[in-house]
Amino acid sequence: MSFNFETTYTALPPTFFREVSENRVKESQIILWNKRLAEELDVEDEYANTALFAGAQPRDYITQAYAGHQFGNFTMLGDGRAMLIGEHVHQNKRVDVQLKGSGRTPYSRGGDGRAGIGPMVREYIISEAMNGLRIPTTRSLAVTTTGLPVYREEVQQGAVLTRIAASHLRVGTFQYARHMVDEHAVRELADYAMARHYASLEKGDYIGFFRAVMRRQAQLIAQWQLVGFVHGVMNTDNMTISGETIDYGPCAFLDVFHADQFFSSIDQQGRYRYSQQPAIGGWNLTRFAETLLPLIDDNEEVAIAALEEVLMTYPQVFGDAWLAGMRDKLGLATARMEDRNLAEQLLSWMEANQADFTETFRALSEGKAITGLAEWQKQWEKRLEIEGTTVEAAQQCMRRVNPAIIARNYYVEAAIQDAEAGNMDAVEMLVEALQNPYEVKETHQHFRTPPTMQNPYVTYCGT
Ligand code: AMP
Ligand code: MG
Known about the structure:
This protein is of the alpha+beta class.
């Protein structure tokens, strides 16, 4: 089967998008093709269609308008280097097929609309890693080189990522509608988003809509915290309405556990550090709530009170999701008052002892001895006793939720360097390991080792 593009997004008022048709590509070549995802989407035979994935096929593409708070400052944004090919429907699911890095668009502002091979390969790897960890995420179908140079700090080969997403509706899309268009646009957008992502809600139940988005985001961020994922740019334009993780720029997984870790070179204040992510989620959701006010009640005070009531539950919803996930990580099947404390003590121990986040949970799951953790382990075993479970039984469950392999910076960067030199083997092997992070093949064992690094790892946004 091939793509059955049909686009519902363009039924929105024209203020939400611009069409582009012209594109310039020299010699395109698909360098990464996600076979698994292609099968899921039923588009196996699209592989030959290189021109499509490089953005070279003459057809109408859609670029979407959005705004957003970037590091706290409100700006007009939009698809400056991305274009929607269309929506593909498979097994009653509708997904956006989008090209990222395919050239200038009406929203490019000063940018060239292009992307380098490094950052696109990075997104390919990390999004597949997230999917392997069962965390909602946009996916990567292909990386295609364009044969054009891209000028950043150094010259890079241009590349295009084919991104698959439940949709590209963002908190920033609502901010655009509310602050740059009008109330009518917000209503159209909300109705569209609800029909597309929250179809079980009654039409016009905007409070229910807000609550549903809030829940998905709370769940999502809890899952990030539980695997030590630092997104790096939690701007409101990078927060989806669908609840998928989007935009893998300066993101990274923690190795040694530091709650205040951040990786982005442009995040000088550490606004988006690991420990801040839940709070930033709340901040972004507050911006989202503001956009919905006119739909809730004509009297603004009444509308604010109604949304605040929902928003106030966010810390609890997040906390519950996090604790439930922590119980799974610790092999606890029932809930007890002391569980949060038990989990927090383990994290404090990790931080004080510079322990690797992923390896600590995994070692516990595999019954490996951990130096210096005996006191805590005694408490944990007592807690398991109360449940009437054996440690071995608990560990069996734990191995299904505590990954052995995460996308460690060192291996991601090494694979990217090979890719830049034209060799995709390391990327393919890493991605294969990341697709099943709970069972480690012999040939993938080395990905577990946390490499010792001299300098703190920094990721760059110059993508
Ligand atoms: P991001 O950092 O990917 O979330 O992008 C933030 C905004 O900058 C979005 O509006 C992007 O479309 C835009 N942008 C990023 N890189 C480029 C580029 N090379 N050319 C044009 N716009 C870009
Ligand atoms: Mg973005």
